[in-house]
Amino acid sequence: MVSDQGLTTYDNKNETHTVPLIYEDGSVQLNTVIESPTAPERYDYKIDLPDGAKMFTEGEFVKITSNDGILLGLITPAWAQDANGQDASTWYEVRENHLTQVVKHSNTNTYPVVADPYLGINLFGHVYTDSYNGQPRVNASLSAFGWTTYASGANGQRILNTYGLAEVLSRGADVRSAMNKTSMYQQFQCHALGALAAGQWNLEKFRVNRTTHWSYGVAVHRCNWNTANRY
C-alpha cells in the first residue's frame, strides 16, 4: 500500500506493518509499527551477505564485515518507542545471515510502538580537499547514517575513529596524499572521540603535530589547535 505521503507500507498480517525508508546516502531504515499488545515481540530480517562475509554483534551495534575485516555494513543500536515517546526494551540477536529485533512491548499502554533497524555503510557524505593557510585541507561531512552512528555514544565514536577513518582514506588519492602528516590523524581522532556535535570535520595540514594529547584543552581548541601542547 502507498500512503498519502508516497511511502510504501507493507501489512504483515500480524497487527504490525513495515515502512521502509531509503536515504540518499544509501542507508535503509525499516520502520516496523506495532499496533497492539497481541502483536509479536520478535521481528526477523534476512540479510543478503556477500560470499565470505559475516554478521555479528559488537556492543549494541551489528557489523557486517568481509572475510579480511573490511566493513561492509553497519546496523545502529536497536531502538523502539511507544506513542508517548517512551522507550521500549529492545535488542538484536544474530544467527548467520538472520537479524532478529526483539521488542518487549507488553508493558506499554500506548500504541503504536515503532521499531526501526537502520542499516548503512557510508558514514561520511561529502569528502573533498582544498587549501587553507597555504597547505592542503581535507573536509569531511558525516552522512545522516554517520550522524546516527556518532550520536549513539562511545561505541559509535570508536567506529567513526576506525572504520570512518578508513572510509575517508578510501575517497581518493588526493585525500590520502593530503593526510601524510601526524597532525591530520590527530585532528581526525579528536573529531571522532572528543568534539561532539561538530559540523564539518576540517583536517588542516598547517596545524602542528601534538606533543601533548589532543584531549588537553579540547573544549577550547575544538580540534583546531595552534600549539603543540596547549591550545
Tag the structure with descriptive keywords.
single chain; 231 residues; alpha+beta; nine-stranded antiparallel β-sheet; 5 helices; 15 strands
- Calculate the mean pLDDT score and round it: 92
Low-confidence stretches: 1-5
Number of strands: 15
How large is the radius of gyration?
A: 21 Å
Largest sheet: 9 strands, antiparallel
SSE run: EEEEEEEEEEEEEEHHHHEH
**Strand content of the residues, in percent?**
25-35%
Report the structural category: alpha+beta
Separation of termini? 57 Å
Number of helices: 5
Overall 3D shape: elongated
Helix content: 10-25%
If you had to describe this structure to a student in words, what would you say it looks like?
With 231 residues, this protein is of the alpha+beta class. The chain contains 5 helices and 15 strands. Strands 1, 2, 3, 5, 6, 7, 8, 11 and 12 form a 9-stranded antiparallel sheet that branches. The chain has a 3-stranded antiparallel sheet with strand order 4-10-9, with no helix packed on it.
Question: What would a concise description of this structure say?
Answer:
By secondary structure, the protein is an alpha+beta fold.
Write the layout of secondary structure elements.
Blueprint: E1 10-11, E2 16-22, E3 28-34, E4 42-46, E5 54-58, E6 61-65, E7 71-75, E8 80-81, E9 89-95, E10 98-104, E11 113-115, E12 118-120, E13 124-132, E14 135-142, H1 144-150, H2 154-169, H3 173-178, H4 182-193, E15 201-204, H5 218-221
Antiparallel strand pairs: 1-2, 2-3, 3-11, 3-12, 4-10, 5-6, 6-7, 7-12, 8-11, 9-10, 13-14, 14-15
Helix pairs in contact: 1-2, 2-4
